[in-house]
Amino acid sequence: MQILICSIRAEHEGNWDLHLSSQLAMTPYFFTTDHHNYARWMPIYLLDMTQLLQDVHNSFQDGQFTIRRTVGSFNRILSDMGTESTVINNAKSDGGIIGLTRNESALLRWTLTHGMLGEYARAMKGSSGLSPTGYADHEQTQPAAMKGDEQHLQ
């Protein structure tokens, strides 16, 4: 539990050194819980992070490996979660990139405008009550994922 708490703290505070050390400490558990992709790629990720360019390393030390979506402290999220909850989520929604990949001009138009359109769509869904905003609908909070996590914990 201490490793998990340290990982969450590193994420919320933007603490790069704590992030790396907690990921390293978690790595053996990925093997024992059959999370094959994490087990395979975490050592490579950690090695890559030791070879960052100095300016990138300095930025990460300043907490720029996380995203803060609201004002305040201790509320950052990792960049992949921020991307997943915004850009990728908008791409998968109605009017997203699905079905456009064979039409080059439509794909180009979508690429240039999807950020703005995604924000409009998110705002409209949030104000109309059609879809919750935030992380309540994240795939890892769904009953099947929660059950799998509970089985791994046991």
Question: How would you summarize this macromolecular structure in one to three sentences?
Answer:
With 154 residues, the chain is mainly α. It contains 7 helices and 2 strands; from the N terminus they run H-H-H-H-E-E-H-H-H.
Helix/strand-derived category reads mainly alpha
Helix percentage range: 55-70%
- Percentage beta strand: under 5%
Unreliable segments of 5+ consecutive residues: 132-136
Count of the domains: 2
How much is the average pLDDT? 80
Helix-strand sequence:
HHHHEEHHH
Characterise the protein shown here.
- The structure is a single chain.
- The protein folds into 2 domains: 1-64, no CATH class; 79-138, no CATH class.
- The protein is built from 7 helices and 2 strands.
- The chain has helices spanning 2-13, 16-32, 36-49, 54-61, 79-92, 104-128, 143-153, and strands spanning 66-68, 76-78.
- The protein has a two-stranded antiparallel sheet with strand order 1-2.
- A hairpin with a 7-residue loop joins strand 1 (66-68) and strand 2.
What order do the helices and strands come in, and which of them pair?
Elements: H1 2-13, H2 16-32, H3 36-49, H4 54-61, E1 66-68, E2 76-78, H5 79-92, H6 104-128, H7 143-153
Antiparallel strand pairs: 1-2
Give a quick set of tags describing it.
two-stranded antiparallel ribbon, 154 residues
